[in-house]
Design goal:
The protein is an alpha+beta fold and 428 residues long. 29% of the residues lie in helices and 24% in strands. The protein folds into three domains: 1-174, PRC-barrel domain (SH3 type barrels); 178-272, MgtE N-terminal fold (Alpha Horseshoe), CATH 1.25.60; 288-401, CBS-domain, CATH 3.10.580. Strands 2, 3, 4, 5, 6, 7 and 9 form a seven-stranded mixed sheet that branches. Strands 1, 10, 11, 12, 13 and 14 form a six-stranded antiparallel sheet that branches. It is elongated.
């Protein structure tokens, strides 16, 4: 194996995994160590890699030909695509050891910030060194960092509840919300709720939107009600409405009352629409501008970082007021058209209105058919008075067209694997 003799595992989190042909297989999410009956440090038997469709698989340490800070490379052979399941005598190093409160043989207490694996002359990898941040008892000063041998640290045995969240959050920090949501599903419920609660409101809102409904509800229930209301305020109104729909009506009312009125009002409106209709799946905050706005103003608006690509793909044009429900709906302008027009031109001169808008009662199958027919990324939704009340975007359609449990890792599609769960590579 062409790799350093010692590798610190927290630094591997998120590193890309490549097959012998240079094609990316996935990204490293953890390392698997096997506990031993003796006092010897646990043996590292492989890595856990996350593939597309959020599938986590096991990569035997014997299949890995090189490890460096930028890539893990596999040797030739057959890649087993069966979903990884931890065995009773195995340890997920990052998930279970980071932030563990331990004691050094000097008597000093601290928390684990990283763990190194090391290769012996015989080619066996084992956990060899532990990086421990000493507890100082002072809020204003970080303790010294000690890098010590595995056998000089007490408290690394059975998994307990003596763990914080700071170092695990540092490992998860750069993940996309969907990947972080996937990582949370691997944690025990109590640990998952603890890590979720440690996220800031905006980050937690993004992650909740990517979780299965039952996990959303459990995490929200573990927060105090005011914090839960704050997180709901950070969510897109349609996502917040979907989550609140999973709660009993009395709990919905309590959380809505705790939200700021201007944040709660659009969510209340969405909750009134029948399930499976345009009103229930739309976003009530599309990009809306008046007809006398310029192309330059429209381009500046869709550049705003908080807008999702689907929402930013088009500008809807309406008479004042410009918050939903607006004045009379006039039409829409796709961002590609904006790029082709002079910056000083007015939207009223380039608006397109040759496609009938959706009604709040339009059923989901009809929405899907019309968006596919006209190759639309988003479509306006109007009320009986032709006022714009929202827009259905392609991500809304996908979310509500896929099976209800599509976000649940245990129910994820396995179509990329063959019947026996393997993917053939080059023969060894």
């Amino acid at each position: 194996m062409s790799t350093p003799n010692r590798v610190y595992l927290a630094r591997l989190a998120g590193v890309a995994v490549f097959d012998p042909n240079g094609d990316q297989v996935g990204r490293v999410r953890d390392a698997v160590a096997r506990m031993r009956a003796t006092q010897r440090p646990p043996e590292v038997v492989g890595l856990v890699a996350e593939m597309p469709m959020r599938r986590r698989i096991f990569l035997s340490i014997n299949r890995i030909t090189s490890i460096d800070p930028d890539a893990v490379v596999l040797g030739s052979g057959t890649l087993n695509l069966r979903r990884f399941e931890k065995r009773p005598n195995e340890l997920l190093v990052l998930q279970e050891l980071l932030d563990r409160r331990v004691q050094l043989d000097s008597g000093r207490a601290g928390s684990v910030v990283d763990v190194a694996m090391e290769c012996s002359r015989g080619g066996e990898w084992s956990l060899s060194r532990v990086a421990v941040r000493e507890h100082t008892g002072r809020l204003t000063r970080r303790g010294n960092l000690h890098q010590v041998d595995w056998d000089r640290v007490r408290g690394l045995g059975a998994v307990g509840d003596n763990r914080g969240t700071a170092n695990l959050l540092a490992v998860l920090e750069d993940m996309r919300p969907a990947d972080l949501a996937n990582a949370l599903q691997d944690l025990p419920d109590a640990r998952r709720n603890e890590v979720a609660a440690a996220l800031d409101d905006e980050r937690l809102a993004d992650v909740l939107s990517e979780l299965p409904e039952h996990d959303q509800v459990e995490i929200l229930a573990a927060l105090d009600r005011q914090r839960a209301a704050d997180v709901l305020e950070e969510m897109e109104p349609d996502d917040a409405a979907d989550l609140l729909n999973e709660l009993p009506p009395p709990e919905q009312d309590v959380l809505l009352d705790l939200m700021e009125p201007d944040e709660a009002d659009p969510v209340r409106q969405l909750l009134r629409y029948a399930s499976g209709t345009a009103g229930s799946v739309m976003t009530s905050e599309p990009v809306i501008l008046p007809p006398d706005a310029t192309v330059a103003e429209a381009l500046a608006r869709i550049r705003e970082a908080q807008l999702s690509p689907a929402v930013a793909a088009q500008v809807f044009v309406a008479r004042a007021p410009l918050t939903t429900p607006t004045g009379r709906y006039l039409g829409m302008v796709h961002f590609q058209r904006l790029l082709r027009e002079p910056p000083a031109d007015l939207l009223g001169g380039i608006v397109v209105n040759d496609i009938d808008p959706l009604r709040t009662s339009t059923p989901l199958p009809e929405i899907t058919r019309r968006m596919a027919t006209y190759d639309m990324v988003g479509m306006p939704v109007v009320d009986r008075n032709n006022r714009l009340v929202g827009a259905v975007t392609v991500d809304d359609v996908l979310d509500h067209s896929l099976p209800r449990d599509w976000r649940d890792r245990d129910a994820a599609s396995t179509s990329s694997a063959t019947d026996d769960g393997t993917l053939d590579g080059d023969d060894e």
